[in-house]
Amino acid sequence: MTYGPRWGRIPRMGRPTRTRPRPRSTRLRLVLCSLAGVLLLAGGAAAYTWHRLSGNLGSVELGSLLTPEASATSDLNILVVGSDSRAGKNATRAGGGDDTGRSDTTLLLHVYGGRTKAALVSIPRDTIVDRPACTTASGQKLPGRAGVMFNSVYERGGAPCTVAAVESLSGGLRINHYVEVDFNGFAELMDALGGTDIVLAKPIDDKQSGLHLRAGKHHLDGQQALDLVRTRYGVGNGSDLGRIQLQHQFLTALLGRIAGGDLLADPVRLFTVADAATNTLTTDSSLAHVANLASLAYSMKGLGAKDVQMVTLPAQLEQGNEDRLVPDAARGAKLWAALKGDRPVPEAALTGTASVPNGIGQVVKPG
What we know:
The chain is of the alpha+beta class and 367 residues long.
């Protein structure tokens, strides 16, 4: 068997055959088919991830209680509720107790038009409010009731009645979205983020919760972070107001940490955080798909710690009962008018009320 230049193998008998190179169009088709296969595999993985994250989300139907967003850059009101339910894993996280869920923490996040600034308004759970007539998620109709503790509204009526109560308390400020998180979800999300560093300017010694932290720098895991934001008796005078101030300081430190980390540069960690975050949340039905939730988060991507004004509902101590608060009507009107007009909350809405700092000082500093 012999070979000739530019010729293929010469058979023993018959005419020599030439091995021609594949035409360019054939090679291109092979490359495109291979690339299509890779894209299909990647697309399948992406679709699985998308489906899994969406499946993690719990949802609640709030219907006409919520007002749709005007646009991706309009001002926005999101009601965020932290439930103290002891159901499931929450019992271990919360140190036992009954399964009656109340609104342990309630935050109204107002994002200003353009979505580069925000105000975060804490509503103390011990505030005395009038619960409007409302319908629970199960369809039960509750009559209105005057003079109830704010956290009992969630206990009796869940998300729909809590939304109705906040809209009533604010004089008609319309809420666009609802987000709920429980104890275990918060702790697991903090663990997925890798915990957080904080610096305590003052020690915390809470015999009730067992939280004991010296002054100085600490790295907190999920359970420790949960204990920190729930402590009442380790700061100030043991009231919910002192705890809210501590939460504001912690959230400011946490926002600074998140803004300083680049999750997008680490896809594995990003998925871990997204998986924990979506497992953590119960949202209104319009947010109960990861595409919608991601779009909302992306519209606020420019928000940093310095861009969020931390506010507590203006209130006064109830006469004869320092464990209860009553809304300060005059200053509250200034707060809600500012948010309805998409304006910064004025100092006049906050000074002279029980919700100003009560002596705990800057306990948590950015770490």
